[in-house]
Amino acid sequence: MDTRFFGLISAVILCLSAGCVAPAPVDTKQDTVAAPPAAAVAVEESAPQLFEPGAFDSPRSCRGCHSAIVDAWSKSMHAAAWEDKWYQDDYMLGHRETDGATDMLCGPCHAPIAARTGLLPPADGSAFDDTSRRGISCDFCHTVKGVEQLYNMGHISEPGPVKKGPRGDGRSLYHEIESSELHTQAEFCGACHMVVHPANGVHIIDTYEDWRTNDYGQQGITCQKCHMTPGPGISQNPGRSALMGARRDNVAFHGFTGGGSYMQDAVGHTEQAQMSREFLKAAAVVELSDTVGEDGTLELTVDVRNVGAGHKIPTGTTYIRKMWLQVEVLDQSNTSVFSSGQILANNHVDPDATFFRLLFLDDKGQLTGKSWRAQGIGYDRRIPANGKDTEVYRIPLPAKGDYTVNTRLMYRSFSQATLDAMQQRSDQEVPPVESVEMASAQIDVTY
Ligand code: HEC
Ligand code: HEC
Ligand code: HEC
Ligand code: HEC
Ligand code: HEC
User: Fold this and answer.
1) What's the gap in Å between 28 CA and the centre of ligand 3?
2) Does residue 314 have a cis peptide bond before it, meaning omega lies within 30 degrees of 0?
3) Pocket residues: Cβ below 6 A from ligand 4
4) Which is the closest atom of ligand 3 to the Cα of 320?
5) Does residue 221's CB lie within 6 angstroms of at least one atom of ligand 3?
6) Over the chain, what is the mean pLDDT?
7) How confident is the model over 349-386, as pLDDT tens digits?
8) Which among 274, 279, 286, 233 is positioned nearest to 439, based on CA atoms?
9) 42-44: strand order across its sheet
10) What element of type H or E holds 257?
11) All domains in the chain, ordered by first residue
């Protein structure tokens, strides 16, 4: 194996209660990369890489030749990763509660160029240049020469005239090109899509580890194969990646579509928001079966299957997102005789609904969605890749007759309570959170 590929290994020392041990190798093809710690550990990071401000190119200097890619990227959540007001609210709250201890945890993922050029701290971004403000941009990703740690942004940067990408056979007048296998691998994404609490090892975001150990990871179906195409199930995107570039069968799409339709709509990226809704719909199906007892009790079994995502649903910041079931039983005159998971007048969700998400435990043993307070996992109900989860409802039917049962699997990027609190803290208007239907099913039952 080409050892240059992953660069130097940092002195990551995992100190378990039994003493300090070397991190376990992650994978035979990644045999020198530090894997995320599995249990409570103290992670000692190597000194971060630091370059001169301006060492990374602005996305503006790529636009002249890569206009379609710059366009797609600028509507992605990567472009918004720092300026995103929902991120800013959470980040500043963490900053205040920990006296700034979280700054250099959050910053390297959400503003990697600022962190790598010494413009962060100060925490509020007041020293940032234009390039740093653009979140995770072209030149950060395309000057990555290796990954030394598969969590908490363990990328190794080599900013300069050489742009690293998946091919290596193109020619550009502006920059040199180097082929990089890493850019086609999930580890490239995983080094950010895996967040480990530095004080106690709690897995805050586990998308990469989840993927690595499930069917998709075992079969090598990478993040790029699903998230760098213009839509779910579209595997070919023919065209040119650059003006004067060669025609290619499949050009990597840079919208990095996920579930973020609410944020995208809020900032006017309506097309990208629509793509996000299609992604959410591609992830799951709902199946129903029923029996009605002698006494008129309807036993409704709802199976939710994850058929389209290469990881659990929801994934990522699942302590912020939420997925839940809406069930409604209507009689022949369309009157509701049972309902669960409905949206209330204040745009909150029925608190008794069946929720699929993850929440942490804080130091008082309370459930929390604030990542820096996490001491452990308090609630984890998510649907594994290619797996299913089942909920059974026992519903008393009021009288003999025919009924219709409607069931919907719903998704929100935030809870309305989070947005209410954010609005109070900052006085800024945030639109009410959108609910997206991921899947639905209907059956008729007779008592
Ligand atoms: C190792 C990289 C990494 C670190 C460190 C990190 N994040 Fe993130 N963050 C992510 C990724 C990846 C996502 C996207 C996941 C998703 O879409 O569900 C994300 C999403 C978020 C979001 C949701 C934003 C939105 O608009 O939906 C918030 C809020 C957030 N992070 C806050 C924080 C805070 C606060 C910290 C520090 C305590 C932090 N993050 C540290 C990688 C990181
Ligand atoms: C003067 C035009 C020009 C500019 C400006 C430019 N590029 Fe390129 N770039 C090209 C051409 C042409 C190719 C080759 C495309 C092909 O044939 O596939 C290319 C290819 C690439 C590749 C693909 C490498 C591979 O083969 O996998 C990456 C990555 C890349 N450029 C990044 C950037 C970044 C980042 C910027 C801005 C900092 C930038 N480029 C600015 C013209 C340009
Ligand atoms: C088989 C296709 C597939 C693969 C492989 C895949 N994903 Fe996804 N991903 C999806 C679908 C579909 C969704 C939408 C469902 C959702 O948001 O939960 C999604 C959602 C997401 C989200 C948004 C979560 C949210 O709701 O905030 C993130 C972040 C993400 N994926 C990252 C990754 C990363 C990182 C990898 C690789 C380690 C990966 N995905 C591999 C299909 C895939
Ligand atoms: C989050 C990291 C990330 C960001 C940000 C990013 N890219 Fe990429 N880019 C990738 C990866 C990964 C690939 C390779 C995907 C694959 O082929 O599997 C890629 C592929 C490319 C290619 C080759 C496309 C092809 O299929 O021939 C070009 C050109 C390129 N990127 C330019 C850019 C430019 C310009 C920007 C800024 C607007 C940008 N990238 C932003 C990660 C990124
Ligand atoms: C430098 C760290 C970093 C790298 C590398 C990175 N991501 Fe992300 N990604 C983030 C952060 C941070 C966010 C959340 C931004 C926000 O919402 O504020 C995010 C968000 C996303 C989303 C969520 C979009 C949504 O709609 O919710 C997807 C999908 C995604 N990334 C896929 C990828 C894939 C695929 C790769 C690899 C080709 C990748 N990311 C590489 C840090 C990274």
Assistant:
1) 24
2) yes
3) 59, 62, 66, 69-70, 73, 78, 136-138, 141-142, 165-167, 183-184, 188, 224, 228, 241-242, 248, 251-252, 254
4) 27
5) yes
6) 91
7) 999 999 999 999 999 999 999 999 999 999 999 999 99
8) 286
9) 19-21, 13-16, 42-44
10) none
11) 3-248 (no CATH), 261-446 (2.60.40.2360)
